[in-house]
Amino acid sequence: MNIPGELTPSQRILLGPGPSCVHPRVYQAMAKPIVGHLDPEFLQVMDEIQEQLRFVMQTRNRLTIAISGTGSAGMEAAFVNVIEPGDKVVVGVNGVFGNRMSDIVSRCGAEAIRVEAEWGQAIDLQKLEDALKQAGQVKAVALVHAETSTGVLQPLEQAGALCKKHGALLILDAVTSLAGLPVKVDEWQIDVCYSGTQKCLSCPPGLAPLTLSPAALDIAQNRKTKVQSWYLDVTMIASYWQDSSRAYHHTAPINMNYGLREALRLVQEEGLETRFERHRRNSAILLKQLSELDLTPFVDESIRLPSLNAMSIPNGIDEAAVRRRLLNEYDIEIGGGLGALAGKVWRIGLMGESSKKANVVYLAAALREILG
To answer: How does strand 146-147 pair with strand 152-153?
Structure first.
C-alpha cells in the first residue's frame, strides 16, 4: 500500500459561493489542544459561543446554539423540530435553496405550499399572504434571506408580522447573510433561524448556528410525534448545550467550536455595522470594476446581495474555461451558476475574510487579462 505524501493544499483566494477565506487566528484556535466534550473548559467554550451567536443574530433567544454539522444540517434541524406530519408550510422558492427547503418539508410528511418567483427575483409578500389566506391553518412560512444560487436578498422587515397575523412561525435561511448583512432575529420576529460557519463568519464548514424563539421551542418540546432525526432533536441537544447536568448527546467537534469562537470574536471586535458596511463597500467596488469589462449584475440593485454577487456572462464566453484559468493561473475560485442559471452567471462571493478590496482588484485584473 502506498502512503500518500504530506498534504500541501494550494493557497487559494476563495471568491466563490463558499467556503470563504479563513483568518489566521481561526486556524490558530483550531490547532489548540483538544479536550473532552464534557470537560469544564469546553463547556465554557460552548457557553461563550451561545452568547456570541446571540450578538451576531441579534436575539435574546435562550436556545441559540451551533449544530454539529454543515449549514444543510442547520436547515434540516430547523424543519424537523417544528414540523410534523400533516402540517402545512408555505415555502418561498426562488432558487436552489428554496427548493431544498420544500423537499425537507415533504420529507417531514408535511404539505409544502410553494410560492414561487423567477430566479433573480424576490418572493412577493402579497403572494405569501394570498397563500396563507387560501391554505387555512399554516404551521410555518419558510424563506431564504440570501439565495446563494442567484444573489437575491429577500426583504424581511414585514414578513414576521405577516406570519404572526396568520398564526404561523417564520423559518429563515441565513446561511449567506449572517455576519455579512443584518439578521435581526428578534426585531423581524423570526422564529427559527439557521446559518453556516463557512460563509460570512469565515470559519471552516462544519457547524450550523441555530436559534429558536420561545414559541418555536415550545412547539418542539410539545410535539405529538417524535422528531424524525435523533441526531438533530434540539430538545436533546439543548440538554447538552444548556442544562446544568450537561447530558451527553454526541461528541461535539471540539476544535471546530474553537474556530467558531475565534471567528465570532473577530466579528465582535470589528462590530456589526462596520462589518456590514465593509461588505457593501467591496461589493460596490467589484461591480464598478466588472462594469468596465462589460459584465453586468444579474439581480436588480434593490434586492442585490453584497455577500454573493451574481454576474451575467456575455454571449460567446466559455465561462467554465474562464473559471479554470482563474483557479489554475491565479489561484482564484469563483462559482458557476446552479440549476436554471448554469452557464449563465458567475457567482462571486465577498464574504467575511474574503471581502477585501485587494481581492476585488486582483480578481478584476485577472479577468481583464483572461477576457482580453
So the answer is: antiparallel
